[in-house]
Amino acid sequence: FSLAPLVPRLSELLGIEVKKADDVIGPEVEKLVADLANGAVLLLENVRFYKEEEKNEPEFAKKLASLADLFVNDAFGTAHRAHASTEGVTKFLKPSVAGFLSQKELDYLDGAVSNPKRPFAAIVGGSKVSSKIGVIESLLEKCDILLLGGGMIFTFYKAQGLSVGSSLVEEDKLELATSLLAKAKEKGVSILLPSDVVIADKFAPDANSQTVPASAIPDGWMGLDIGPDSVKTFNDALDTTQTVIWNGPMGVFEFDKFAVGTEAIAKKLAELSKKGVTTIIGGGDSVAAVEKVGVADV
User: Fold this and answer.
1) Which cofactors, by name (predicted)?
2) Are strands 190-192 and 120-124 parallel, antiparallel or unpaired?
3) What backbone torsions phi and psi does residue 146 show, to the nearest 5 degrees?
4) Where are the domains of the chain?
5) What pTM did the predictor assign?
6) Which residues contact 253 (CB under 8 A, 6 or more apart)?
7) Beta carbons of 168 and 127 less than 8 angstroms apart
8) Which end of the chain is more exposed for a tag (fewer CB within 10 A), N or C?
9) pLDDT digits (tens, 9 = 90+) for 133-166
10) Cβ-contact 233, 222 below 8 angstroms
11) Pick from 179, 177, 132, 176: which is nearest to 154 by CA?
């Protein structure tokens, strides 16, 4: 989308007339930049119109960087993306620094995680244990309660000797799952795995589904969400907390039928936020779930 609709609001917020370029690189943009008076603001067009942006192509980044003397990244929510306009330009611009909003976010996160108000709970979801090993190991050093959901739980179940039907399992991570559970016990962290799951006969939005105990998943069926008993248990545990970090969905929330667990967690965290509990949500899927439920601004 073009950034043209942002110009009036940006001008209003800054208290000056913001000019907009119709491109992000090229002679016309270079002339607009050269003609800028001190204190003037020029908004470039959306960099996503160029495929080179997300590919972080050095030549494109160099052209972007040639328009400026220094680089300030204040988009904390996209700072992890190695794109041309966020990471590529830093190779050609000195200084390249973080802005005040990024500083504020980092200070908040550092305080919340390094010195949290307790009890401190972490909710970790997502499809694979392998992608969350670092997150889980780090949180086990800090949290009091660890709640696990998403596809990764079936690797933990299988590691405990349970039948998981055709659910997603990382066979090469069974020993790791066992060791993580042992580490949690050793550190006195209360670890909660879902007691019931919503299963499906295929991976599709229109799949037949039923709720079963986690210990009773039949052959040929796969778990795609946490069940209602688990939601209640998780909510009860979260009610005791003062700080909560959430990373990763509880199920396949892209399919409405299997989004109930994830949406319930999102609503619970919104409720806790209103009561003064510190809640931090990270990861694209978790954020998308919060936005889908309509509680992102709570």
Assistant:
1) Mg(2+)
2) unpaired
3) -120, 120
4) 6-98, 116-293
5) 0.74
6) 259, 262, 263, 285, 288, 289, 292
7) yes
8) N
9) 888 999 999 999 999 999 999 999 999 999 999 9
10) no
11) 177
* Percent of the chain residues past pLDDT 70, beyond the cut: 98
Distance CA 266, CA 122 (A): 13
Alpha-carbon gap, residue 6 to 226, rounded angstroms:
41
Q: Regarding the domain with residue range 116-293, which homologous superfamily does it belong to in the CATH classification?
A: Phosphoglycerate kinase, N-terminal domain (3.40.50.1260)
Structure tokens belonging to residue 126: 């997502």
Question: What's the rounded Cα separation, in Å, for the pair 49 and 54?
Answer: 10
* pLDDT, the chain, mean: 94
Instruction: Find where tokens 């209640």 sit.
Output: 232
Class of domain 6-98: alpha beta
The answer to whether 24 touches 68, Cβ cutoff 8 Å, is no
> Tokens in use for 108?
């908040």
More confident residue, 291 or 23: 23
Q: What mean pLDDT is predicted for residues 32-60?
A: 97
